[in-house]
Amino acid sequence: MDRLFRPVLALIATMALIVALMLGLPASAIAQAGPPAEVSAQISQAEADLRSADRALDNGASRSERDTLRAKVTAAQQAARAAATSLQPQLDQMDARISGLGPVAKGTTEAPDIQRERKRLEQSRAAIDSAIKRGRLIDVEAQQLIDEIQRNRAEELNEELSTRLHSPLTPDFWSAVLGALPRDLRRVDTFLRDGGEQIALTWRRGVPWQALLGLTLGLVLAFPARLKLRQIGQRYLIGTAPGHRIRRSGFALWRLLVGTIMPLLGALALAQGVRWSNLLPARWEELIDGFVVASGLSAFTVSVFGALLMRQQPTWRVAPIADETAQRLRGLIWPLAIIAFASILLDSFNRAIGASAAAQLAAEVVEALLHVIWIGVFLLLLGRLRAQRAERGEATAGGTGLGAFMLVAWALVLVALLGLAVGYISLSLFVVRLIIWVVLLSAATYLLMSGADDVATTVFSRNSRLGLTLVRSVGLRPSLVDQFGVLLSGALRLTLALLTLGLLMTPFGGGEGLTSLFGRLGALSQGVELGGIAISPGAIIRSMVVLALGLAIVRAFMGWLDGRYLPATDLDGSGRNSVSLVARYVGVALAIIWALASLGIGVERIALLLSALSVGIGFGLQAITQNFVSGLILLAERPIKIGDLIRVGTDEGDVKRISVRSTEITLADHSTLIVPNSELITKSVLNKTLASPLGRLQIQFSVPIEVDADRVIAIMNRLFEEEAAVLDDPAPRAFIDAITDGRILFNCFAHVPSPRDAYGARSNILRKLLGRLREDGIDIGTVAQRLELAPGDYARFSAPNAELDCPAEAKSPDAR
């Protein structure tokens, strides 16, 4: 459990940086490069470190020693790589200078000074080239050593997890513990007696003021100083931080940082005081170190859950947690911290006294059982709270994600219990430690992500002080400031997510994080090889996990893109839809390629597969390909956008959705017309809102020629003014279209904000026009139709069969 402390330090450093940014503290990183004369010495030192690490591995280094060696090899690799990179410009300069001298012409002799210069340049170039090659070789060898160390760690972890011992439910297990108990008790007695004798000897020499000072300083740091710093941070945030969100996140991170560092510093002060006063013997050093680690991890556990729940200050709570949930979960924090503290301290005590393997195994069983009980109580309490909220009809926080986590956690708890029952104690302990570490890491990451998002989106906002300065001084658009804040927030949160993935397996021997885990999954079975591709259960599982992870990342990215970034842009709904669709398909394609690559199918194999399927795609999927290409053209050229009013054939409606295969159109009867994209590209489509969103209405009628035309035009102008939907610009107009058959024909036009408003506005104006003309006694209608018969012989119409011979026009009653 003490290996958890190293990633905790990394989290503390990250939190310190974010809190410093939020509080406005300056943070700078100064990178200094050595002079060119030291580059060769730097490569030689890296080579010497690499050789010493290689020899140490050959001598059989322990796990902790291998961690140190891995850090040493990584530093040597980075130093050699940086040296080789820094020498490359010098090599290019040497090549340019030698090229400037030109080749030696055949049959000629160069001047002595040119010969000396050429020789000097060639010697310098050879030295620089040799140093670059040495640096690259050291880089390759260091990577091989790192891979070897990682393989050894993975093999040890696999061997440890797959080792089966006596079950705690069998008499053999307890017989071994009882058999080793007398010797373990003697070791404990010797250990305590040596400590007591050393304490008595130190007190006889004088008062161990260093230890008393360390104890006093430790208590002050752990309690009053921690509380005072928390209050100071809260007052500072209230007085200086802009906006409630930054104050809330800043206080949570400050509480987490102070609550972790101050008890840790107190434990370090106590331990250092004990060492300086020589109060305890040397063999107690292991226990002292364990006490420091246990104090730090326990403080981190209490502070991270305290900052997340904020039981006494619910208005400062970052997470959307109900007060009832915070109150109920608060009681589980200190038991978990005590279990972690006791587990680390007991493990350090067993190592310090040299306890038997049976005693250490019994301690691991107790630790695993206590963690299983705590996890079970936590899950039961969480499930009961969710059930009570569901019964009251309240929305449950977390949704599907929390439900999936609880289901997986219950499955892992069952695996841990089953492992304890059958004798896989290391596996059971690994599972429960992993659950606890994931919970702690997730809580800390959530606080860090919330803080990063609040800082980025608040500082870089169009309404913030910095945002107003950028808009007024630099001339940036306000939307660009908002976009930068959202992008910065996404970049910070992505960095934190990658850091979390890297720290996930670090305490358990997985220094490479997720890559190491996938490597171990792939090593479970060799499988079979088909066409140069290794197909195995481990590879399939790895590919499925990678695909699920890739799709989850795409989904999270699309949620951020649609919900955060695109609303901060100046794009309309159609533009956002186009960007969202392209990003979604590109993301899914990349996730699939990533999954295939993890399965061993490279990009070149995918290209060969696509070329083999191209013929089938050309013939069998021609229509789908045509629609797909047409959809890309629609998204790129945007002749039709979401919300446009279009007419396809005899159907007219609003564009609801545009995908890469088809377009959905909502008709007037609320039905949906799905049109293939190729129809919209290859055929005529009437888009009533493409060039202008305005709509036009037209009214035609006639009045008798005796009516005053100016009076009718005035009536129409007043009706246009009274109609709210009619626009003033362009102004409505009324025209005399024609004078025919004793009537005056009027043709009137007006514009409305949208074509969708034209029909209703036209109906209102016609209704008022009828009433107004009726009040004024003006007849309204159309030109009368008159039928005249030409002169001719009408006698035949009176014959018996005249109906058979008469023209069609004469059969009309009006004609007779």
Automatic annotation (TrEMBL):
The keyword Signal applies. GO terms for cellular component: plasma membrane. It is a multi-pass membrane protein. Residues 699-780 form the Mechanosensitive ion channel MscS C-terminal domain. Its main location: membrane. Belongs to the MscS (TC 1.A.23) family. GO terms for molecular function: mechanosensitive monoatomic ion channel activity. Residues 1-31 form the signal peptide. Residues 132-194 form the DUF3772 domain. Keywords: Cell membrane, Membrane, Signal, Transmembrane, Transmembrane helix. Residues 624-687 form the Mechanosensitive ion channel MscS domain. It comes from Novosphingobium fluoreni. This is Small-conductance mechanosensitive channel.
